[in-house]
UniProtKB/TrEMBL annotation:
Residues 244-345 form the PDZ domain. GO terms for molecular function: serine-type endopeptidase activity. Residues 1-21 form the signal peptide. InterPro entries: Chloro_Bact_Ser_Proteases (IPR051201), PDZ (IPR001478), PDZ_sf (IPR036034), Peptidase_S1_PA (IPR009003), Peptidase_S1_PA_chymotrypsin (IPR043504), Peptidase_S1C (IPR001940). This is DegP2 peptidase. Pfam families: PDZ_2 (PF13180), Trypsin_2 (PF13365). Keywords: Hydrolase, Protease, Serine protease, Signal. One of its GO terms (biological process) is proteolysis. Belongs to the peptidase S1C family.
Amino acid sequence: MKRHPIALALILAGLALPLQARTEAGPRAVTPRGPLAAEETANIELFRKASPSVVHITTLAARRDFFSLNVQQVPAGTGTGFVWDEAGHIVTNFHVIQGGSGAQVTLADQTSFEAELVGAFPDRDLAVLRIKAPREKLPPIALGTSRELRVGQRVYAIGNPFGLDQTLTTGIVSALGREIESFNSRTIRGVIQTDAAINPGNSGGPLLDSAGRLIGVNTQIASPSGASAGIGFAIPVDEVNRIVPRLIRDGRFLRPALGVTAGPANLTRALGLPRGVPLVQVQPGSPAAKAGLKPFQRGRGSQIVAGDVITAVAGEAVDSLDDILSLLETRQPGERVTLTVWRAGQSRSVTVTLGSAE
């Protein structure tokens, strides 16, 4: 290739430079940055303290080898959980382990353990697993309360989005008292909304306050793309702290029962009934039957025989059977509760001894 005379002269001039001149270039000196900002230091310290309590959950599914016909467990999905106590109980979302034949829990130090299911409550999208790990590897997460939360306060989420474990995101409490639908169509009330980035894989992980205390369990996002859009939801810790001990104790959440079936909303409109829950069935021998509650029925000639409408439970107004179930979940079978009941234009108070939903 023929070079231009000027270019050739420049190349030769460079080669002619002294060796010292050609080797002076090197890495630039680093500019000192000074101390970290107070907020950065606080974030680092919070993650250092809380992250050992956060675990990575791999859900397993049974697969049969086509050639050998041997059944093996293979990874089917991932999620997040956290250490509840030194006995090895791990809390996560029900939908993280739903449909799996097993689960594996990986701790912060990357050691893994097979997990057994202790109990689950799909109505609140909560589940408890248990692993047999040394107590020194199981630092329980610090518990806070959701009663004191305020919109605007700082929150932190630690989880495994897209399988990337031990990821920290920050944000604020965007709203309180939200309602979302659980995976079995039951309403979860009092939910925390946050703009801390929550993505697939974060489910079941902790939402923390600035003191590093658990204030919620990350459960869902609202996003048209399936990735974080700044609207995430967490089950409040007070709800978690009410349900988890009962799952550990009983292996399931035994909801108190009245033994009634509610009528549809159009029944209330058609009969001009007051706000409340009209009864269309009362099970014989149930707590409601023993308390004298009566359902609406059809008499002769399609005439409607007046029944009862439950308008309040323990003084709290109710609009649907879901409202009643949510209020009863805060109680135990065998407890007594006062219902406000309307029938044929008159209201009365009825005391019912709650039964079990078994």
